[in-house]
Every structure is written in structure tokens, then in C-alpha cells.
Amino acid sequence: MKLKLIIALCLILVWLSPVGVEGATQEASTSPLLEVSEVSAHTNRAVEISWKTNIKAISQLYYDTESHEDIADYAFFVEDLALTAEHKIGLTGLSPGTLYHYRVRAAIPGTEAAAISDDYTFISPTPINWAPIIGAFVGGIIIILLVYIAILRRRQRSA
Predict the structure, then answer these.
(1) CATH class of 28-123
(2) 3-class secondary-structure state, position 83
């Protein structure tokens, strides 16, 4: 009986183990100016795309739910005009669990110098649905209590 109780507790703990957030980490270099370094997921409906350049440039991010040959065809565009060599752009309001394609562009204002990455992808995070987890936890506690009560009743009858 104790073995069944231990197994039940182990199953509950496995069921409650944290669920990973889907995202991607990618490395690429499409020109001496540009190096895409990582994509990291942060919250339920947001991601942060970061990359590095060899010189300070403005940050531009193009993204969509499909890939495009021409960067201008991407449905969404975000820009940060601050000159930096370590670029970060956060994306919010994404559809959960959706595959997005993106390309980054680094440009030096007042010049023709710019670099555009290849197409990369990430899957936006899916929020955790806590209802089944809480339900399983409460159900597990109830089962443990019922088993404990049954054990106590058996002991009382045999005494």
C-alpha cells in the first residue's frame, strides 16, 4: 500500500514539472557587418530577438507568419533608431504557439551600408493552462487522503 502511495506521489510530481517555453537560438553570419546571435522567449506572448553587429547601427526587425524573398513583404516591422552594436527588439502581442519568420536588418544612417539576415523562425510561447495542472494536483491530494483514511479504517477494524 505504501508503494502505491509513493508511486501516486511520484506521478503527481512528474505531472506538475515545469513546461519549457518554445523558442529558438540561432547563429548565422550573412555579412561582415551582421551576426544574428540569439532568439529568446520571455513571457506568455512575447519574445526578444537580439543580434550583434561589428559596428554601431540602427536595429530593424521584419517578421511575419510566412517567409518572404523580399524583406519589404513581411507584414510586421519594428525599428529602434538608437545606434548600437548589441541589438535587442522585443515583440509582444504575438499569437500563442504560432510559427513566425523574421529577418533583421542593421543599417548605418546617412550611408548605403546595411546588412540583412537570412530568414529565421521562432514559435511564440504558449501560455500554461493551469486548470488541468491544478485539477490533477487537487485530485491527487484527494486520492492520497482517501487512501490514508482507508488505511486508518483498516487499522481500526483489525485492532
Answers:
(1) mainly beta
(2) strand
